[in-house]
Amino acid sequence: MAEVKLYGFWPSLFSHRIIWALKLKGVEYEYIEEDLSNKSESLLKYNPVYKKIPVLVHGDKPIAESLVILEYIEETWPDNPLLPKDPYERAMARFWIQYGANTGAAFSAFNRGSGEDQLEKAAKELLESLKILEEQGLGDKKFFGGESINLVDISYGALGYWFPALEEAKGVKVLEPRTLPRLHAWAKNFVELPVVKENIPAYDNMVAYAMKRPARN
Amino acid sequence: MADEVTLLDFWASPFGIRVRIALAEKGVKYEYSEQNLKNKSALLLQMNPVYKKIPTLIHNGRSVCESLIIVQYVDDAWKANAPFLPSDPHQRAQTRFWADFIDKKVFEITKKIWTAKGEELEGAKKDFIECLKLLEGELGEKPYFGGENLGYVDVAFVPFYCWFYAYETCGKFSIEAECPKIIAWAKRCMKKESVSRSLEDPKKVYEFVLELRKRLGVD
User: Fold this and answer.
1) Which domains are seen in chain A, by residue range?
2) Whether residue B171 is found in the same domain as residue B111
3) Membrane-crossing residues (chain A) (predicted)?
4) In the predicted model, is pLDDT for residue A217 greater than 70?
5) Residue B140 maps to which CATH number?
6) Which residue of A has its CA nearest to B74?
7) Is the model's pLDDT at A209 over the cut of 70?
8) How many separate domains does chain B show?
9) pLDDT cut 70: percent of chain A above it
10) Nearest CA in chain A to B87
11) What is the distance between the alpha carbons of residues B116 and B219, in angstroms, rounded to a whole number?
12) Which whole number is the average pLDDT over A1-5?
């Protein structure tokens, strides 16, 4: 089998998603940690358009953009499927994955928010977005994928560890049992899964990183 | 069971046009329902409760939202002919990458071209041409992004061609002068009935953009 390499960055939630997917599919890979302040020649060669991580390289063929990479992994290693086969269910899964991508701006606003007013406004908007996700996306299911996780769960995984670390750094809570009971429960269940638990940075390191880094786009 | 397909759409929307092309390529019979975006119908609100936007496809009572997701759904649900995505997984990934690029970068920039002025406008024009040049690179010597036939990226991007006249007139520049290959590609696509019947008259689109500019207080 051709070699698989993953160019990532240790605190990046986009990087973590790819790791979980590769592990779930039982794919052996080489992980390469990128220094984003000094990007490698390889990264610039493999992702000339965005120059970002994660990049998956299979054989010598690169794939960029985490959601594109996830669909590639799903198609290339079809055992243990992570997307429904039915066209309509598949479309619904993609819809919710994209909904998460669309909330990126709201998360950025929360991250950048300095001062009580800005933070409060950002928190309120995030809460609205997450309420829709909880009510219409998750509903009463244990996972977005049903009894087991799928790409939708993977795409929201950051809510289980990355986002709580950011909430702690900011001193503002959004995802709580009181406000988002089902989503909060989902997040706790997700992060307890061995494939996730064993493949995320230590929580304290995430908090420290969230506290000191400048908000990036 | 006969398929019942309805498309909730707005005539000028390039996102709606994507779906019209996709359905035409697959030979799907459907009911086109023009929506009033200033006074959204109960059906639209019911079928797209999250975004309340067009295009929204209704297939046998179930709705699919978001244009590229709809195009992928049309590809999956009507598999018999005209596949939009290549069969090779790496090529499929490249196809998805470029369609995502169009949505992530190109669309935001084009909005600035018909709403911005001065330095912001000049910046937007420069960014737009850079994006088109990247797309020209991806097209290479192929007749279509999909190779010998229309594919996912063609369907994702060609609808914007009927907005080019509006961009050029508002921005006072020529897209063909900078990116002749893109124009040649677009004209090639227009020879296909699925495309020529789905794109709107560029002059009508321009009139609509002028109206929007007035409403937004740009002029």
Assistant:
1) 4-76 (3.40.30.10), 87-212 (1.20.1050.10)
2) yes
3) none
4) no
5) 1.20.1050.10
6) A87
7) yes
8) 2
9) 97
10) A75
11) 10
12) 88
